[in-house]
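#data-curation
PF: Archiving a pair of folding outputs for the training set. Convention for this channel: one message per protein, sequence first, structure tokens after, nothing in between. First:
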Amino acid sequence: MENDLKSESDDDNDAFKAYIENDDNYSHMFMVKNTWAAPFVTSQRYNIRWGTGLDFENMNMHLSERWTENDAHVLFHSTHIDVREQINFYDIATGTQIANLTYTEEKTSGANYVYNHTDTREFGWRASMKGEGYSDVRIEGIRCVSEDCDLEDIDDVPISDETKLWSLPSTWPDGIVPTGGDV
């Protein structure tokens, strides 16, 4: 009996694995096995960030087929740390670029804002099925638009594994703990 159950379980696992690995089992546009899905409560604003501090280069937003015009919107906000000379939003179905600074003017999905200054690197977008919204949006973060960017190469600096306490004079090169106003 136990061997029969194990055999059935192995057969089920093999069938499931075969299903997952067969690209024909996924939508013609998206491969669900290479994405993450997350539910969001409508009429809310969410701050999205990447746990490792690394920024994206491409990100897609796909609204569920269950989302209707009667559902409220969801607002997203994010900052970016790495240089992004440009952040563009596109309708995936047509490849059409969605204009920047449409976030407050339109109630449609994909409406967005991008502030890309040295002291303010943030962007946001709207998810909604109201009006002429886009159910599938690609967000592209471009580090360098032209081929001859003036971006400096980043030098790898070794980081010590040694724990150093701020309050110990031996931590500081001159042997003096900095105080308020020291530069």
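PF: Second:
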Amino acid sequence: MTGTSGDPGAGPSPGPAPPASSPPGSSPPRSSPPRSGPTASGPTASGPTGSGPTGSGPTGSGPTGSGPTGSGPTGSGADQPDRSGGFWLVRHGETEWSRDRRHTGRTDLPLTPHGEAQARALPPLLGRLRPALVLVSPRQRARRTAELAGLVPCVVDEDVAEWDYGGYEGLTTAEIRRHRPGWTIWSGDPPGGETAAHVGARADRVLARVRAALPSGDVVVVAHGHFGRVLAARWLGLEPAGGRLFALEAAAPCLLDTEHDVPVVHRWSLPNPADTA
């Protein structure tokens, strides 16, 4: 959602980048010719971002320093590396709480009309997929996003659910900071909720399923803001709190990949056309 995933806001929290840990694994070798790539132009998405209730961050670029390329709705794909399958991460479309930057974990909210428009606008960004596996969070906001984007059939996976915010569910970061100055979710200690380590363990299990399916084709994970950022951090071999470095917009797809057997981010938070209409 947008708000963080929880979807509250999006900007990366200040602080040094976490030390790298051994990547959970590497993706399989790639041999098939490159596929069409996502669109290369267009303003950045508007609305709350996908990282935390507060803050904002740049979109459309990844840690590797390159943004989307191509010319048409699907791009030329000439700069995409060969791969057995692509690993796409998609955050669900907008909900009322994500729009208002409220932490949304277990609360099962529907998409707003704009969120549904965002989901319908996803196919051109994803290019010509040949999914071997689509994993979706059990929350209706993620399942509806997958349905409207044509990402079916899909497998509902509890490990793809958003961070459990415990007693901070439904609150904004500003409200929480009235009692805990300087708090962010990346400390991983919401009362009665999940720790960062627990969310990271779920992300590792999801990545194991992703890597097992990539030799057969593309894999798409339709998830949430905070969990999606943890998933990217673990793909790169960072600690779960490394997710604070990745702002993630609602319904803004990301392409995770490897380069010379090293996990990289190839596309990040591509602007959704519904946000610029």
